[in-house]
Design goal:
This protein is an all-alpha fold. It has one domain (2-439). It is built from 15 helices and no strands. It has helices at 2-12, 18-76, 79-93, 96-127, 134-162, 166-190, 199-224, 236-270, 273-286, 291-309, 313-340, 342-350, 358-374, 377-383, 387-439. The chain is globular. The protein starts with a helix and ends in a 22-residue tail after the last helix.
Amino acid sequence: MEIAVLGRRLTAAFGKRATLRGNLVRGGFGSIGIKLLGAFLSLLLAVLLARMLGPINYGIYAYFLAWTSILAIPVQFGLPTLVVRETAKAQASGDVGRMRSLWKWAERAVASLSMLLVCGVGIGAWLFREDLSRVQLVTLGFGLMLVPIVALGNLRAASLSGLRHVLRGQLPEFVLRPGIFSLCLLALAATQRFDVLTPSLAMGLQAATAAAVLVMTTIMLRRLSPPSTGLPVIEEGLAREWRHAVLPLAMLAGATAAIQYADILMLGMMRPAADVGTYRVVLSASSVVAFGLGAVNLAIAPYMAQFYAQKDRDKLQRLVTASARVSFLMALPVVIGILLYSKEFIGVVFGKVYAGGAPPFAILVLGQLFNVAAGSSAILLNMTGHEKDTLTGIVVGAITNIALNLLLIPSYGITGAAISASAAMIVWNLLLWRTARMRVNVDSSIFSFATAEPSQTTSWR
């Protein structure tokens, strides 16, 4: 009932323009539906991989997947966020030429960076091949194939989101990729030959799935793109502007990746592969707490940019407050259930061999609940042109995460990694919440205290 009330408040935040209200409500609740389906598919995928690979092989797969995700950061260079923001602006002004020039420039950048990085890492892996097993080398090879495919797919999805096709923009990452990958694993499981699946085969299936989804997303974008009268021309002035804008976004993406994957990588360096596999299981399971916040963020990001450009702070505050409270109300019962039955949940869903991950699971879940309560502060700052402030908060969080991992993992293993991840999440959320109040004069949290009077750092003019 309370969620329904908040939904009505969300629609009321935008005055009498029915089209805008309808788009936002459809996008918001559609995003929640996609996120629910995506959370289920991601959980199903994690369960299949964990059960079919076992802790050791799953640990190898998770370790190299984390490296693949880290390597994708410099390739994407913060471009998806830039594409969402600049596409929304170009569509609002009716500048199709600028929009298509942006897409072409971003694709060229990703292709060039991918070639350099994949070749560099591939040569390095070949030179040090004696330090890696054959399974590890092949797994890394498929992971490198995954880097440019995922990067280009994320650009296509970002373009769709910027065009206000929010739901279609979410389909590739949250539904198509985990869904098709899960179907491949289920087909393999149907043969009852679980020993066939290896870390390298799992990574190969991941790459093949991502390639298929990239083709689907490209077709979707071509059908939904506004018509253009000619070929896009990349002006040097525009390219210079985009390079300047994307640098803090790229650094932000790198710092975010450090928070997301530092624990996996450092566990892989300091602990057995089985510990990495167990931690990956509980880390994947804990992400279900924040699925509502993620769905809402994707739906409201273009409107944040729009309301800020229109200098309508009141609408922006109501949008952010309502979305934070809806997300928190969806997360709270999940957290309570997990805290009460964490060991049973892990044992039943993933297998008793992973039941030792229950304590770190509870710690990660509490960290995620705080993340949801703090609201959409990072997206708010990014969509209002304050990427550097977001970067500062995330960098502090990343440093906190790495420092605590170095201190706690040797003695406490996966529990230490969970404490580090949750502490880092709390630190950067507090910093970004405070910064959003200072810069934009908007409270992103569920509490929505009365915002401060505009100060010299507030950018509403």
